[in-house]
Amino acid sequence: MKHDQPTQRYEPFPATAADATAVFDTFESALSTRRSVREYDPTRPVDQHTIERVLALANSAPSGANKQPWHFVAVSDPAIKKSIREAAEEEERAFYGGRASDAWLDDLKPFGTDAQKPFLEHAPWLIVAFKKSYDLDDQGEKSKNYYVTESAGIAAGMLISAIHMAGLATLTHTPSPMGFLSEILQRSPNEKAFLLLPVGYPAPEVHVPAIQKKGLDEVVTFLK
Prior knowledge:
- The protein is α+β, with helices and mostly antiparallel strands.
- It has a single domain, classed as NADH Oxidase (3-Layer(aba) Sandwich), CATH 3.40.109.
- It has eight helices and six strands, in the order ααβαααβββαβαβα.
- The protein has helices spanning 17-31, 48-59, 78-99, 102-108, 119-122, 148-165, 179-184, 216-219, and strands at 70-75, 125-132, 134-136, 142-144, 169-170, 191-200.
- The strands form two sheets. It has a four-stranded antiparallel beta sheet with strand order 1-2-6-5. A two-stranded antiparallel ribbon has the order 3-4.
- β3 and β4 form a beta hairpin.
- The longest helix is centred in the middle third of the chain and has 22 residues, at 78-99.
- The protein is globular, with a radius of gyration of 20 Å.
- The model has no long low-confidence stretch (mean pLDDT 94).
């Protein structure tokens, strides 16, 4: 295959089948314990270096034409977190107060959620993921990005996995609409927020709903 830029040899990881089995067994055991957490320990800080490392892994995700059509804003400032919580709860009150359908609210009942989102202040970090339909250069000229939603979604999935493997907890919070995040965080018009992740250590003795996932036979079809 012809390349228009320098190449480098691909080095598989792990290098041997035996190593791959051991690494995957560890990864499988660890990732299978991941759960969404809504209660965080505000007394346990998370250093910025750890946040930088998980974001660097997310930034290594594949993307259309390697455009990397995403931007992450990591917030630890208490005043900004408070502003985000207040704006998010305003949207959530509208959601629970009539914007959501009865069927949607019924589906949410097992999780005990409501318009109150204290985790947006209690978590030591909030990471807001933005997707970019186009880039802007220093002169304000636009350049198109490709497969934006798919690329940003892959990066977000890698970020969630990295957070868990770093011994931290998170929650995929998606208040709708999310325009207030662009305003509070003063982002460019070409960026649209699509995911808000509180990140931190879970509160002591935290409980999560006992849920079951669909079986593999329900979500996978093998054609042989």
